[in-house]
Amino acid sequence: MFRSKVISFLLLIVILVTACTPQAVAATVPVEQGSAPAVAPVEPVTLTVLTAASLTESFTELGETFEAANPGVTVEFSFAGSQELAQQLAQGAEADVFASASKKYMDAVVESRRVDADASKVFVKNRLVVIFPKDNPADLTELKDLAKFGLKLDLADESVPVGKYSLEFLDKASADSAFGPQFKDNVLANVVSYETSVKAVVAKVSLGEADAGIVYVTDITADAAEKVGKLDIPDALNTIASYPIAPIADSKNAELAQAFVDLILSPEGQQVMEKYNFIPVVEGSQ
């Protein structure tokens, strides 16, 4: 009897001790009624876009638009001559999107298998214009004045799309009786420098290091317009440049790359391009 009472007493003590021991805290804290559910942080992603220098202002704005619509994404641009960017891609540079000022260099990237042949789309067009410093030291009043003896002319190199288009303009003018067959040779005799990008031409003319240069009309930005004047080149002598864009075939961010291309081709993207004086095109036109 005594033994049974002792055992009962010990069991009672065990029960009391267990009841008084604090329970383990739950690993997760329940969300209060009505509060917003926790959202996993977005993993940062960098989208690399290799872009013709003449697209600097327009693509910078569209890059900001894309980032705002895609939290966690940073659009990193590399602005340079299309020929330089195509060479980088051929040598294996990592990128997600390529936008060229010339079909020639997009074709080169297709040949190097960095872009699928059917992925390239023309998204805008552009046109040439002659610029000169605001004080017009060479007293330019018409296109014929580019052949004036002693004029200092700055052009983009022939390997740069705008440089090639500039030579095409000179060829057309030389075939026009209003200019004469020696026009191209006389103009090229005035060249003091050949640049690797159109922005370099704008910079040198703006600084007065050259009396004139040939660039895209889109390069006369609000800032540049305060420093340079212009002479229009008529359509018959001009070259209308087509700009293709494509996602890189081996992009590590394929969906985002295509989404960026889609933005450029969208009505919103086309409106931005038009704001910067590009000639918009219908989506997918070639």
Give a structural overview:
The structure is a single chain. This protein folds into two domains: 120 residues, Periplasmic binding protein-like II (D-Maltodextrin-Binding Protein, domain 2, 3-Layer(aba) Sandwich), CATH 3.40.190.10; 105 residues, Periplasmic binding protein-like II (D-Maltodextrin-Binding Protein, domain 2, 3-Layer(aba) Sandwich). Helices cover 37% and strands 21% of the residues. It is elongated. It is of the alpha/beta class and 286 residues long. Helix 2 runs antiparallel to helix 10, helix 3 runs parallel beside helix 4 and helix 9 crosses helix 10.
Apparent shape: elongated
Share of residues in helices? 25-40%
Lateral strand order in the biggest sheet: 2-1-3-10-4-11
> What's the pLDDT, averaged over the residues?
88
Straight-line N-to-C gap = 104 Å
Total tally of structural domains: 2
Q: Classify the beta-strand content into a percent band.
A: 15-25%
Number of strands: 11
- Following the backbone from N to C, one meets helices and strands in this order, namely HEHEHEHEEEHHEHEHEEHHE
Q: Helix- and strand-based class?
A: alpha/beta
Q: Which superfamily, in CATH terms, is the homologous superfamily of the largest domain? A: Periplasmic binding protein-like II
The level 1 CATH classification of the largest domain is Alpha Beta
Largest sheet: number of strands, sense, barrel closure:
6 strands, mixed
